[in-house]
Write a structure and sequence with these properties.
- The complex is a heterotrimer of chains A (163), B (556) and C (103).
- Chain A is of the alpha/beta class and 163 residues long.
- In chain A, 29% of the residues lie in helices and 21% in strands.
- Chain A contains 5 helices and 8 strands.
- Chain A is globular, with a radius of gyration of 16 Å.
- Chain B has 4 domains: 6-109, Alpha-Beta Complex (Sulfite Reductase Hemoprotein, domain 2), CATH 3.90.480; 135-291, Sulfite Reductase Hemoprotein, domain 1, CATH 3.30.413.10; 307-398, Sulfite Reductase Hemoprotein, domain 2, CATH 3.90.480; 413-549, Sulfite Reductase Hemoprotein, domain 1.
- In chain B, strands 16, 17, 18, 19, 20 and 21 form a 6-stranded mixed beta sheet that branches.
- In chain B, helix 6 packs across helix 8.
- The interface between A and B is large, with 37 and 40 residues.
C-alpha cells in the first residue's frame, strides 16, 4: 500500500510479516505486538529496523522500555470510527516521548488526517488511488486549533495571550 | 453573550469551506455515502424519514435577536418556514436540501453560529441553566465554563472518534435546571469552605436504553484545573469505552462497570500527568476575558412592585401567565419570563419564522441582548423589567406565545417521533397534543401543579422520558404504536430514573391512562405535594392499581 | 381477509433528501405511482437494479417495504411508511400530502 511520510509519498522500509511467517532478509520488518514480545531480541539483532503493529485495543505503554529501539509503531484503525488510535499516538508522542515513526494503518478517512497529524502520526498507509494533493489540502483546511496536542501547535488560547 | 474574535470566526468559516468541499466530493461520487455519513453527521446533518434534518448548535441555549432573525430567514428560504427547539437547547430544521446546506452553514457563520459536532461520536453542544446570570443564588454563570468547554472540545483531535456521543451540561446553582446528572459529564459549580469556586464533576449519567444517574468523580476540581480534568476523563473513555456494541458504548456503561472509585483513580492518573505538563491550565487572563462577555446588563434601581404590573394582575390571563411563566430575578423590579412553545395543539418546541422574527423585533424594541432556549423546549427572556411585562405579555399573546403553562401538565417535552424521525417506533407529537387537549382547562392544570410529562418516540429517549414525573415511551408492538408509562423520573438535582408502571397502552387508550394516573395522584396526594412527591411517598403500587383496575386491554 | 403483503422499493434522493419510489427502473415521488412487486424475486431484482443509482450518487438508503392492496389503493403495512409516503401526520400542510387534492 502506498505510504505517505512527512507529507509525501515514500518508500516503505518495512515489510509487515504476519504471525507465523518467516522473516524476509535484507529488510526492516513490522510485526504484531504478540510476535514482538515473543521474538524481541532476535528481531533487534537480525531484522532491524523493527516496527511494531498495534491493534486498536493495544495500549502502547507495554512497549515503554523498548521505545528507543523501535523504529516505527503502526497503529491500526479497524474501522475509521474506532478512535482509540488517536489516544495511543498522543500517548506515545507526549507521555512516552517517542521519537520514531507513528504510522496509521487500516481504515480511516482523508478527513481524519489533520487530527492524526496533530496527535502525532507522521506516516499513513493510504488507498491506491490516494492523491497527495488531498493530503496537502487536508493539512490546510483549518487555520487554527483550540486545544493543545502532541504537535505542539500554538492554540488560539496561546495566540490570544500573545504567545 | 460571547462574541467571536477573529480566531473563532475563522474556525467556523474554515469549517464551512471544508464541508462545502465534502459535499462537492459526495455529489461527484468521490465519497461514498458510507464515507460521507460520518462527515455530514459532524455537521449535524441527518437523513430522516421525509428529508434531511439539520441541527444547529445553540451554545448553552443563548441567542441574540440577530441570530433568531437568521433562523427565520433560513427557515423561509431553505426550509418550510419553521424550526424545532430540542431538548439539548439546539434548533433543528426538518427539510433542508443537501445541496443547500453549505450555503445555510455560511449564513449561520455570518451570525457566529454553526452546526459543528451536533451529531457524531464526539463532544456535543454544551448545555447550561437557561436562567444563567438572572437567577439568585448563582455561584457563577455556568455559561463561562460552557464557552470554555465549547472551545476546548471543538475539533479536538484526540476525541472526535469516541465510542459514542458525549454530552456535557453545566449548572451554576444548587437547584439544577440543566439536568447535569443525566449527562455523560455533568458539572455543578460549587464553593468550598474556603469560599473558592470550583467544580463538582459527575460522569456517566444518561438516558436511552439504559438510563443512569451520573457518579460523582471530581469532588472539587479547582477552576484552573477543570480542562485538564475533563481531558483526563475523556481520555479514559476514549481508551476504554466499549467499541464492540453500540448499545454499550456510552461512558455511562464504562463508569458504572468500573465504579466511581476506579474511574476516578484512572482519571486522576491522567489528570496528574496533564497537570504536570501545564498545557491545559486555564490562564486567569483568558478566563476573565471570556467571563466578561457574560457579565449581566446594568440593572436599574427599580421598585419591586411596579404599579403597571400590579394593575395588570386584575386581567385573569395575565395573572395566570405571571403565576407560572415568571421566575423571580436576582435584581429587584425584574423578572425572568418563560415563553412557552407548548400552545395547546401546536407542535411542542416548534416556532414559526414569523414568531422568530416577531420575538427578535420584541428583543430589539426592549433592548434585550439575549433570549434563551431551555432543554424543556421553551424560550426565556432573562432580564425583563416587571413594569414592561403587561405590554410584553400582550404582544406575546398576538404571537400565540403567551401560553400560561410553564411547568404544568400541558408543558410537555416531546421529541419529533415517528412523524419525522427515522429512528422512531411511534408517533409522539399527536399523543402530546391529545394530552394537552384533555387537560386544556387552565384551572384544572393549576390544580395539578408542577407536573412534567416527557415523551419519547423510541428508546433513544430524545424526549428525556426517563426524567419525566410522568414519562411516556412510544414502542412498536407487533407493528402497532404502543405507549409505556413511567413514573417518578426527575432531571433536577434530585435526579431519578422513572419506573415503568406496567403493560403499555394503545394510542386510543394512552390519554385515558394518563388521566387515570392524574386522578390517582389527586386521590393520594397530601398537601403541597407534586405528583412526583406523592409517587416518591407512596410508590408505584397505588398508582398502578388505580390505572389498571378500570381499563380493559385488547388481548394481543 | 386482507390481501397478503407485497413489496415496494423506496430511497431518498441524495441532493435533496426527497423520498422516492421505484417504478420499472426509474424513481417517482408518489407512493401511488410506484411499482408493487409481483413476488419476492421481482422485489430482490429491483433492489439489485437500484444499486446503480446508489453507485451513480443519485439516491441513498434503498430498501424494500411491505404494502397491501385495497382494491387499487396501495397501503403500506407499517405506520412509518404511511407517514413517509404522506408527510407528518401532525402537519398536513407539509410533505407530499400538501400537494394532494383532498377528495
Amino acid at each position: 500500500m502506498p505510504l505517505i511520510k512527512n507529507g509525501a509519498f515514500a518508500a516503505d522500509p518495512f515489510v509487515f510479516v504476519p504471525d507465523g511467517r518467516a522473516f524476509p532478509e535484507d529488510t526492516g520488518v513490522m510485526v504484531t505486538l504478540a510476535r514482538f514480545q515473543g521474538e524481541r531480541e532476535n528481531l533487534f539483532a537480525h531484522h532491524a529496523p523493527v516496527g511494531v503493529r498495534l491493534a486498536s485495543s493495544e495500549n502502547p505503554e507495554v512497549l515503554k522500555s523498548d521505545l528507543h529501539r523501535i523504529a516505527a509503531i503502526a497503529i491500526e484503525f479497524p474501522i475509521f470510527r474506532d478512535g482509540r488510535g488517536f489516544s495511543w499516538a498522543r500517548m506515545l508522542r507526549t507521555r512516552l516521548g517517542y521519537k520514531g515513526e507513528i504510522r496509521a494503518v487500516g481504515h480511516f478517512l482523508f478527513d481524519q488526517l489533520a487530527f492524526m497529524v496533530r496527535v502525532g502520526f507522521d506516516a499513513f498507509e493510504v488507498r491506491q488511488d490516494f492523491r497527495i494533493e488531498d493530503f496537502t489540502r487536508a493539512m490546510g483546511e483549518m487555520h487554527y486549533v483550540y486545544q493543545p496536542s502532541a504537535d505542539g501547535k500554538k492554540t488560539i488560547f496561546d495566540l490570544r495571550l500573545g504567545k | 453573550m460571547y462574541r467571536y474574535d477573529e480566531f473563532d470566526a475563522t474556525m467556523v468559516n474554515d469549517r464551512v469551506a471544508q464541508f462545502r468541499y465534502q459535499v462537492e466530493r459526495r455529489l461527484a461520487g468521490e465519497l461514498t455515502e458510507d464515507e460521507f455519513k460520518p462527515l455530514r453527521l459532524k455537521n449535524g446533518l441527518y437523513l430522516q424519514l421525509h428529508s434531511y434534518m439539520l441541527r444547529i448548535a445553540i451554545p448553552y441555549g443563548t441567542l441574540s435577536a440577530q441570530q433568531l432573525r437568521k433562523f427565520a430567514y433560513i427557515a423561509r428560504k431553505y426550509d418550510r418556514g419553521y424550526g424545532h427547539f430540542t431538548t439539548r437547547q439546539n434548533l433543528q430544521f426538518h427539510w433542508p436540501r443537501l445541496v443547500d446546506v453549505p450555503d445555510i452553514l455560511a449564513e449561520l457563520a455570518s451570525v457566529e453560529m454553526h452546526c459543528i459536532q451536533t451529531s457524531g461520536n464526539c463532544i456535543r453542544n454544551v448545555t447550561a441553566d437557561q436562567f444563567a446570570g438572572a437567577i439568585a443564588g448563582e455561584i457563577e454563570d455556568p455559561r463561562i465554563l460552557s464557552e470554555i468547554v465549547r472551545q476546548w472540545s471543538t475539533f479536538h483531535p484526540e476525541f472526535s472518534y469516541l465510542p459514542r456521543k458525549f454530552k456535557i451540561a453545566v449548572s451554576g446553582t444548587a437547584h439544577d435546571r440543566a439536568a447535569v446528572k443525566f449527562h455523560d459529564i455533568g458539572i455543578e459549580i460549587i464553593r468550598n469552605d474556603a469560599g473558592e469556586t470550583g467544580y463538582r464533576v459527575f460522569v456517566g449519567g444518561g438516558m436511552g436504553r439504559t438510563p443512569y444517574v451520573g457518579l460523582e468523580i471530581g469532588r472539587f476540581v479547582a477552576r484552573e484545573d477543570i480542562l485538564a480534568y475533563l481531558e483526563a476523563c475523556m481520555r479514559v473513555y476514549n481508551e476504554y469505552g466499549r467499541r464492540d456494541n453500540i448499545y454499550k458504548a456510552r461512558v455511562k456503561i464504562l463508569a458504572h462497570q468500573l465504579g466511581a472509585d476506579e474511574f476516578r483513580r484512572q482519571a486522576e492518573l491522567e489528570f496528574a500527568e496533564i497537570k504536570k505538563t501545564g498545557t491545559l491550565q486555564l490562564p486567569e487572563r483568558e478566563l476573565a476575558r471570556i467571563a466578561a462577555y457574560f457579565a449581566p446588563p446594568e440593572f436599574e434601581d427599580l421598585g419591586d412592585e411596579p404599579p403597571e404590573f400590579d394593575a395588570a394582575l386584575s386581567d385573569k390571563d395575565f395573572a395566570n401567565w405571571a403565576k407560572t411563566n415568571l421566575t423571580p430575578h436576582r435584581a429587584k423590579g425584574y423578572a425572568i419570563a418563560t415563553i412557552s412553545l407548548k400552545a395547546i395543539g401546536a407542535t411542542p418546541g416548534d416556532a414559526s419564522a414569523d414568531q422568530m422574527d416577531a420575538l427578535a423585533q420584541l428583543m430589539d424594541d426592549y433592548g434585550y441582548e439575549e433570549i434563551r432556549v431551555t432543554h424543556e423546549q421553551n424560550l426565556v427572556l432573562p432580564h425583563v423589567k416587571k413594569r414592561d411585562l403587561p405590554a410584553i405579555f400582550a404582544r406575546l399573546k398576538t404571537l400565540d406565545l403567551a401560553t400560561a403553562n410553564a411547568g404544568l401538565i400541558t408543558d410537555i417535552i416531546c421529541c419529533p417521533g415517528l412523524d419525522y424521525c427515522d429512528l422512531a417506533n411511534a408517533r409522539s407529537i399527536p399523543i402530546a397534543q391529545a394530552i394537552q387537549q384533555r387537560f386544556a382547562d387552565l384551572e384544572r392544570q393549576h390544580e395539578l401543579g408542577e407536573l412534567k410529562i416527557k415523551m419519547s418516540g423510541c428508546i433513544n429517549a430524545c424526549g428525556h422520558h426517563h426524567a419525566g414525573h410522568i414519562g411516556i415511551l412510544g414502542v412498536d408492538k407487533k407493528g402497532v404504536e404502543f405507549y409505556q408509562i413511567q413514573l417518578g423520573g426527575s432531571g433536577a438535582e434530585d435526579a431519578s430514573v422513572g419506573e415503568i408502571m406496567g403493560p403499555g397502552f394503545g394510542k386510543d387508550e394512552i390519554v385515558d391512562a394518563i388521566e387515570r394516573v392524574v386522578d390517582a395522584y389527586l386521590k393520594l396526594r397530601m398537601d403541597g405535594e407534586r405528583l412526583l412527591d406523592t409517587y416518591r411517598r407512596v410508590g408505584m403500587v397505588p398508582f398502578k392499581n388505580m390505572v389498571y383496575q378500570e381499563q380493559t386491554h385488547a388481548a394481543y | 381477509m386482507p390481501a397478503p403483503a407485497s413489496q415496494m422499493l423506496t430511497a431518498n434522493r441524495l441532493r435533496d433528501g426527497q423520498v422516492l419510489y421505484w417504478r420499472q427502473g426509474e424513481w417517482v415521488p408518489e407512493l401511488a405511482e410506484g411499482e408493487v412487486f409481483a413476488d419476492q424475486k421481482a422485489a430482490d431484482a429491483a433492489l439489485a437494479a437500484a444499486a446503480r443509482f446508489v453507485q451513480g450518487n443519485e439516491v441513498v438508503a434503498t430498501y424494500l417495504f411491505d404494502v397491501r392492496m385495497d382494491g387499487a389503493r396501495i397501503i403500506p403495512v407499517k405506520e412509518r411508511e404511511i407517514i413517509r409516503a404522506a408527510g407528518p401526520s401532525v402537519r398536513r400542510d407539509l410533505g407530499k400530502q400538501a400537494a394532494h387534492v383532498q377528495v
